[in-house]
Structure formats: structure tokens, C-alpha cells
Amino acid sequence: MRRIFLGAAIAAAIGLSVYWLLTEPFILSGRPITLAARTPDLANGKVVFNAGGCASCHAVPGQPDRLKLGGGLAIHSPFGTFYAPNISPDEADGIGRWTEANFVTAVTSGVSPGGQHFFPVFPYTSYAHARVDDIRDLFAYIKTLAKVAGKVRDHDVPFPFNIRRNVGIWKLLFFDAKPFTPDSAHSAQWNRGAYLVNSLGHCAECHSPRNFLGGIITAQRFAGGPNPEGEGWVPNITEKELSDWSARDIDYFLKTGQTPDGDSAGGSMVAVIKNTSQLPDADIAAIAEYVKSLPPVVGPPKPPKKANK
Amino acid sequence: MIRTTLVVGALLLGVSAVVAQQDLVKQNQDTMKANAKNLGAMIAMVKGEKPYDQAAVTEGLAQLEETARKLPTMFPDSIKGMNPADSKYEVSPKIWKDKAGFHAKIEEFAKVVTEAKPKITDLDTLKANAPAIGKACGNCHETFRIKKG
């Protein structure tokens, strides 16, 4: 009897240690980094800011200034409601006290300066593929923006999803932090587009279906699916659905929000257009060329149409 | 007998009211499709896919202005939550939950169309003013329209 008890205790201790190790932020994903001194390129930082869509979540909602990064937007998900934090350079409530290394680790590894996992509602899963210099320029750019006072409320996420340590397991399953590598079979413009779409632009985060744990279903990347934020459907952006759009049509859409048939973007895409429309023409053209090249992928089945009550 | 007539009459009224509401929903869908058709034609000119056509632009702008005039009464409570049978989109319940917000977006759209209309006289002025109209469409669709497929 005593032996069984002892065995169970040892097994539990081993299990807990393994869990502890697997979910430890600094061991697997967020090793503290050191950065050599460098003069930031603020103009590039602004491009990164717009390509990354930072303002869509972190700008104070209900007011027009996209550069007021006080946070507070409620982001609904199947796992609870998240509230975008203050990332303005305010020392008390924003990221004013963060070092550049803190910022790079947060954005590319999803680990906070305090050594905790960020929830993957923050799309570091895509940002991880970004070039470190781009993220450093972004940090320098955000530092030039207005300080906004006010701490954002805590996330409203129920157990067990509120346990940040569990995100460590999620990262082992779904977080691929490989840096972007250009494909020499394609043009420089295509590669620029591939880089922007898959890293900073984080298009796949909404335009892909997710499994029950919230991981992207890789085989259906870019094939659309139910809107993770609630009602409605996020469109398939592969050739399966966009075959009658030219690269020029995609380009015009990212600039204006207007589809070739005169329709307009709706839902969260309206906020995305506010970002993409600020990008240099060459970058918009690059994104358009890359998106146009996505091979057709069948997405998840759409729900049947609701009849009128 | 009188009672039967009254009941049947009331039922008929009810049925015709539902039919009338379905008609309203269909009309709204047709209006939105006409907006897209007209804006689509202007976009094709902006992109250089079609030559500039003042007559088409004038007609399109007049139709958009007409839409702006109709919009405040296009979504009465009687068609709350009702959708066309064959549509990629559905109405958001927010249209009726946040009437003030909805009407603010309509006013924004009306203002953009009214201001753009006299300014658009050639391809350059179309290029300069058409995107603002599409943007106003999107600003309302952001909150008050739901994509279904």
C-alpha cells in the first residue's frame, strides 16, 4: 500500500516537473537576447507598424487617432474575451520601461518582460517570422508616439485557458518560430509579398480555420473559415475563391477596400484596409502578387443559409 | 360568420404583411446590388479597364444619392433580423440595437456622396473622389453587415 502511494507521488512529481519544464517560457521559446547597437530606421518602423496592423487592436477604440495606442479593445474568441493592452510609450501603463530586447522577445517569442507567456491572440505566431531589424525599427517608431495613460482591464478568460503556463504546451503544438526564408524560384516582389503576408501582415491568423485548441489547420491555411471573433465567415483568399480577381484587383482592394464588383470590405477587414492603405505602393503590389499566387485550397464547409423567421 | 370573416381577414392581413416585409428585404438587397454595380463601373474606369463614361457616372451617382436618401427608412423594426434568401451577407442585429450609430454612418455616407457628386467631371476627379464613397460603404459594413459565405 505504502509502495503504491509512493509510486503515485513520484509519478505525479515527474509529471509536474515535465509540465513545469515544457511550459517554462525562457527555456523553449523566449531566451533572453542581446542586441548589438544600431541606429533605427523610423520610416521603416512606420511601414512595419502599418503592415503589422498594430493599430487595429491597440489603438484606443471609439476615437479616430490610430496612433493613440492605449489599448482596451475587446477581442472575442471561443476561449473568452481578451482586452488589447496599452502599448503606448507610457512608463506606468504602457511599454515605456521595456528595453528593445524585451520588445523583440515579446513580439517574436510571445514572452513578456516578466517572463510569462502572452496568449496567442497576440499574433506573435506570425510576427516570429519577421526580421529582427524590422521589429527593432517598429520599437523605435512606437517610442515616438504619444504616451497614453491608463491600464487596460484584465482578460476575461475562464479556466483552464487563463493559465498562462498552458500556453507553453500550445506553443509546442502550434508555434513555429522559423525565420522567413526567401524562395529563389520566385521574384523579389513575390518574396517581399510572402514575407509581409506571412510575418507582419499575419493574414493567415484570420483567413485560416482553427482546430478546437485554437491552432491553425495548416493544410487549410488561407482557405477561410468561421469568424473566430463571433458571427459570420472569413473568406478564402486562395485561388479557390479569388480566381476571378487579378493581382491588380487585390492591389486596389488593399488600397481602397473596394472589390472588383463594386462591393466593399466589411467587418474586421475594414480596419485591415486602414493599415494596408498606408503601405508603400510597392509593398501593396507585392502582397497582391503573393496572394494571387496562393494555390486553390478548399476551406471548411460553410454553414447552411438561415431561413427567415 | 362575422367572427370567421374577421379571423380570415386578420390572417390575410398578417400574411400580406409578411409578404410585404419580404418584399422590403428583397428591395434592400436590390438597392445594395445596384450600388455595387454602379461603384463597380466607376472602379473599372479608375483602374483604366473601361473608358471614362460621364453618362454612366452621372447615373451611378444619382442612384447612390437616392440610396443615401432611402437608407434611414430602409431597415424598419418590421424587418428586424430578416435576410434575403440568397445572399452572401446578413444584416447585423446592431442595426436595431445601435440605431444612433447606424444613422451616423448613413449620414456620413450621404455627406460623402453629396460632396463628391458635383466634383466628379472627368477621370482625374473620379479617381480623387470615388475611393471616399467606397470607404463610407465599408465604414458602415464594418459593424452593421455580417458576411455569411
Task: Characterize the structure shown.
- The complex is a heterodimer of chains A (about 300) and B (about 150).
- The longest helix of chain A is centred in the first third of the chain and has 21 residues, at about 1-20.
- In chain A, a hairpin with a 6-residue loop joins strand 3 (about 225) and strand 4 (about 235).
- Chain A has two domains: about 5-180, no CATH class; about 185-300, Cytochrome Bc1 Complex, Chain D, domain 2.
- Helix content of chain A is about 40%, strand content about 5%.
- By secondary structure, chain A is mainly alpha-helical.
- In chain A, about 40% of the residues are buried.
- In chain A, helix 11 crosses helix 13.
- With about 150 residues, chain B is mostly helical.
- Chain B has a domain at about 30-75 and about 85-145: Four Helix Bundle (Hemerythrin (Met), subunit A), CATH 1.20.120.
- Helix content of chain B is about 75%, strand content about 5%.
- Chain B is built from five helices and two strands; from the N terminus they run H-H-E-H-H-H-E.
- Chain B has helices at about 1-45, 55-75, 95, 100-120, 125-145, and strands at about 90, 145.
- In chain B, helix 1 (about 1-45) packs antiparallel against helix 2 (about 55-75), helix 2 (about 55-75) runs antiparallel to helix 4 and helix 4 packs antiparallel against helix 5.
- The longest helix of chain B is centred in the N-terminal third of the chain and has 45 residues, at about 1-45.
- Chain B is elongated.
- Chain B starts with a helix and ends with a strand.
- The interface of A and B includes residues 252 and 258 of A.
